[in-house]
Amino acid sequence: MRSIIIILLGFGLLLTGCSNEASVIEVGVYKAEDIPFEDGSGRVTIAFEDTILDDGAIVEGIIDVIVLAKELKTTANYEISLEGDNHQGVVFGPKENVEIRFGTIVGETLFQPNEQGELYVSMKNPLRIISNAKEVRVIVSENGKEVLRTEPFIVSKKIPQ
Fold this sequence. Notes:
The protein is mainly beta. The protein has two helices and 13 strands.
């Protein structure tokens, strides 16, 4: 009987440790946070800008989403999107809305890496696009197939004390 209880307790601890809630990165106001890709080389940096407060709560703001993706095919075209678990989000582009440091834009929303296989692209987005999501990710896709995705993150609505 005692060994069954120990096994059940161990299993419960294992399940608690595997919860998605603990692995979601929280990006705070007035901060920049680096979010790694799950599998792949590079990172995404999320930075708050122009935050509007009301009675200490964030009611609106701009986040700058800065994507550095490495080891991509130099001849392929990639789409970058910011997506929440509530199926809301935005695709990066057109060229008037993005800043490209490495790589080029092809058409309205596709990007081609530089000769080293690197894309370095940023786009400012209204916080409201992802504010109701429980998890947000940046996805890099080639021909509709996901090739990179960040660890999940959320944007904090709390003001640091």
